[in-house]
Description:
The protein is mainly alpha-helical and 468 residues long. It has helices spanning 2-26, 34-37, 49-61, 64-73, 79-103, 110-118, 120-152, 159-175, 182-205, 227-235, 243-252, 261-287, 290-349, 356-373, 378-406, 411-434, 443-466. Helix 3 (49-61) packs across helix 12, helix 5 packs across helix 16 (411-434) and helix 7 runs antiparallel to helix 15 (378-406). The chain is globular, with a radius of gyration of 21 Å. The mean pLDDT is 89.
Amino acid sequence: xxxxILALVVLVVxxxxxxRLVDGIFxxxxxxxxxxxxxxxxxxxxxxxxxxVLIQLLNIAGTGPIFGxxxxxxxxxxxFLWIVFGAILGGGVHDFxxxxxxxxxxxxxxxxxxxxxxxxxxxxxxxxxxxxxLLLTGxxxxxxxxxxxxxxxxxxxxNGFWIIxxxxxxxxxxxxxxxxxxxxxxxxxxxxxxxxxxxxxxGILFHSQYNIPELTLANLHPDNLPIWPFMFVTxxxxxxxxxxxxxxxxxxxxIMSEHDGRKVFYGAxxxxxxxxxxxxxxxVAFYGTTQLLSEAISSLGQSGTVYEISRTMLGSxxxxxxxxxxxxxxxxxxDTAFRSARLILAEWTGLDQKHIKNRLIITIPLLLIGAILTxxxxxxxxxxxxxxxxxxxxxxxWVATAYLLDRGTKLYKTLVTALPATFMSAVSMTxxxxxxxxxxxxxxxxxxxxxxxxxxxxxxxxxxxxxx
Length: 468
């Protein structure tokens, strides 16, 4: 329990101190934001800061800080370290920079920002890569809630039926102005996600049979899966996530002042990490060992595991919270995934999104592809999502580094993005070399290649920095 409490404290202190440092390096000013300057009535609409924070939290979270944290907890309490320091030094910096750089470029997507700061080849690569990631994300956030709803409803309402219902909702949420649906109900669900995490902590504290294990660096994964790089990819959204680079531009179009950026972008990431920390601790505390936790995930699935933990700890109230958490929350991230994909394709094609016809032209094919992808195995989808997610985070951090260099920021200050970019470069490359869905190479090959790859990128960064 002491390790868990200290981890929570470090997250809060990290937001206050390191978040302020990053904010100072970026240098927010009083220029007009896209919400004020453009205000198109569809995507660029002013929102109050508290509402933008909760919407950002729900957009980036979904079931990521729950499912990813539970699977990451199978490695043992060592996952606490990655959630805490990954969020402070990587995830918070990543989300803040992506949101603020987008805001300074009229709410441009991460794909367009890549073209501006890394060149045309990066633009075309990131357009394709980010749309692919968003399709995978939207699909993952269709299949997981549909599976749980199907378990809780009569057999006549099958998994396929609920997939169709969710996809129909996505059409609505993707098309209409952001303040009409997302702006009104998402803050409520954001609060519910936080309440759900607080309730799990309460359940642990008030039931003496549950004990959160103390921090150890030992690898406790029952299948002896290597911590490096698998844990860093598995946790995903709870520490750092490239998906957030596609979501931060949504709120960059809605904040009314640059001075709100730290609260909205960095703050929402820290909140998500608190939720991930709670579920990582709760998973091991509830099942007692990483072996039993892993077996529960294998037999019940991620949704079923969350439902069992919540229902047992908190009774009927916990059951309701679990249903909301693993049904509503992923759905409300899935729809913004498709919304972000629509905006990227709109930038690509030049179709004006003020007109409903143009929004339909892009949205319908996207959702049809998503419907086809739902027929694939969820676990396979999640693994590819996790890798592409962290790879996008790597690229986004290099975009942020290029932005700082382009603006003439002092070299030592650009390290706030360059160091996590280098780290994530090693993670991403090593994972795809070792993973079954990648090349399946042995650690003796994958480890040095991953490190060399990251070192080359860092040296290229230094070369550009010293010769700008």
